[in-house]
Predict the 3D structure of the following.
Amino acid sequence: MTSELSNIAARVREFISSCIPEAANNFSLPAADGSIIKAGHAEKAHAGEEASFQSLALELFALQFTHNAAYRRICEARSIAPAAVMHWSQIPAVPTAAFKELELSCLPATERTAVFHSSGTTAQRPSRHFHSAESLAVYEASLWPWFVRHAMADFKSQNVDFNLAILTPPPRQAPHSSLAYMFAVVRRRLNTPATVFLGATANDGTWSVDGESVARTLRRASEAARPLVLLGTAFAFVHLLDYLAQSEMRFRLPVCSRVLETGGYKGRSRALPKRELHALMTQRLGVPASHIVCEYGMSELSSQAYDGSCGDDSRIAHPASRVFHFPPWVRIQIISPETGREVGEGETGLLRVFDLANVFSVMAIQTEDLGVRHGDGFELIGRAELAEPRGCSLLTA
Amino acid sequence: MLIINHPSQIKNPVTLPNYFLADLPSTATLSPALLEEACLTLKRNRAQYLVTRSTEQLVRVLVGVAEGWRQADNPFRKLALAEGPGQMGFPRATLEKGLDQLFQQFTPENFDALLRQELGDARALDQFCPSPPSGGVPRHARAVGPEFLVQFTAGNIPNPAVMSVTLGLLTRSAQFVKCASGAAFLPRLFAHSIYEADRKLGACLEVAEWPGGSTELERVLFAHADCVTATGNDETLAAIRTRVPLKTRFVGYGHRVSFSFLAGEALAGFGANEVAGRVADDVIAWNQLGCLSPHVIYVQTGAARSAEWLAERLADELARRETAAPRGELPATLAATIASRRAIYEVRAAHSPETRMWHSRDSTAWTVVYEADPRFQTSCLHRFVYLKPVKDLGEALRSADAVQGQVSTVGLAAPDHQVKELAGQLARWGVTRVCPVGRMQHPPLAWRHDGRPALGDLITWTDLEMR
């Protein structure tokens, strides 16, 4: 690995910890008055942060242009070279679908120690995001503080005792899942002894949860005094809630228990509108809307967005207005599919993400997700209906 | 028909009177009891007003209605063009052209051809007509339509629904037309225009709209129906078919795709530009949303003009058409689909000369993708078309094996001496309609829908053997 990329990886990590210094080593946030820090706003006050982002972004783009041949070709086809880019928003974004067809990586093949695949139907070729120990370290540095801020922010003291239950398979059963990896990081850093991965990977690669064993965990948790932190995909929750409904089971998890759900359905369960899913969670698990947090992430990124902080009561009053925010080391744009330009406030377009933590792949990612622009955040409203086109032999080219 | 003999308010309508169920405000709830009543009324009206009509009279009414639709000051046409863009998502120019091309087919000659083609004799629905003798027995036969015909129509473009109603009238059936959600606008206007022309015929017709799969409502229809027709995707058809009683005839029109084949010889000389123009006609007709619109244009290689040359010409044509007949706006999800798909081809084009793309600037209005890979590719439509080079028609068909059995129309550009040979190949492969490029979306009235006799499938024959 070139020292230039290692160097910028270290500086990105420094930048991340300069943005949220408190969370670097533990999850207790010293919000002395107990108030919730509004995601994405307080950070903006940080002097020089925009300038740091800008200079890191331009530098990173130049390095990725040099070290990522597949990306360079895309830039060249658009006649954009680093010298011509004056602002991070001009950095060419790569569609997520390109990760299915190209090796969009700065890492030489010999240095790749892990690869994260996009989820989806098995008929489709997955996206492939290559990682090394170094890039995983950046991934961890990015995911942890933002997770803490949103999922654990209301735990005022490091000494709160809680249990953790995770509805995905463990990483050894899902080695190509960035989500399983992330949850394993969370589990390790939360240092909770009684943590279980309750999901399993079937022979055909699909994920499942054993309703009975989750129900056992839920029963134990509701009898304990400690709150339960429950992490999982939306489709796993649908399967679980269906199981609980069939078995006529309802739980009342201890106060301060919480649910973090992520991801779409992609045909792996019946699709439920968020509002309905959350209502069922409240009904069957006894977790109020204020303690249900949605995460937005994908294998092509190294940072995640959250739609609010756990314990924020204002979300009970406005359950529908869930606005996602990425951390300060990420910028987003909502792009009009018609014109390719940024839409105005309140307008709908495709989400484009500039993620500094994507040091060793491509920082600028064009997603297929539709969002409504709300300040520096976005409301997720769906995905472009995209049957992946056939053909293309770029993989072997 | 809610009320018989409703006073006509149609002379210069701002809104249509409440006559059909589809006219009710969206807040109105349809109940099984209401539908039961509607079915009984339709049957009663049919017995009284429709069974005694002659084919000639019915054709006269239909031709008159269609002539009306082609007049600029026709109130139904005016309403369709004024509100259609909002209701149906097509710009005015597209609607205007589509409606003209549909209704100009409604001539006495075309009806006569349709009746003779499907029934052997244009009067077979009126009386016993001679059939060829069989086994030495002189025979006559008479066609009888269903008493009660239920038609499930899909969204997209209005032509199939208008044709369904038209065929239903010819068979003297009481008709209940169930439109897909949000797709009742034009069928409703057409029904009103029939009612306006002939109240009694209008009284034998009902148009309603509800989300598919409303089993309580649909059960009432199925209990009355002698025949059910349905247009839609395969899942929709399968779901309906299982609920139609065994004794009731079911005619399903499933999802179809279409493509074009341009023979090398057709691209020689000045003709090539004209071919590009006709391909553009096919792409912009109903914004490519019909089953008869091309997803892929196969271009035979080895001729004077390459597929890439043609792709460029087609792009020029589509750009020009966009000025004259703009595609119109799309909802964000559809625009996002086009933008996301373009993004993939942009990446491919950056990495390989085997993919090239031309598209409108600052909009998703039109897209031409050239791919050397000949495999059939389903388009995301709305003027998004693929051009693929092939050695010959055989290679095109092998490349389209994934859609074999689902292809409706192949638009053909070929010199006269090749047409029959190519059409024969297409017929053996399972294509049900071959037409010149430029006419794909404009089938004649007598078109055999998906290779079936559209009128013939509705009727039942009574054979009379003479001594």
The CA atoms of residues 206 and 384 of chain A lie 23 Å apart. The domain at 3-396 of chain A is CATH 3.40.50.12780 (Rossmann fold). Chain A is about 30% helix and 20% strand.
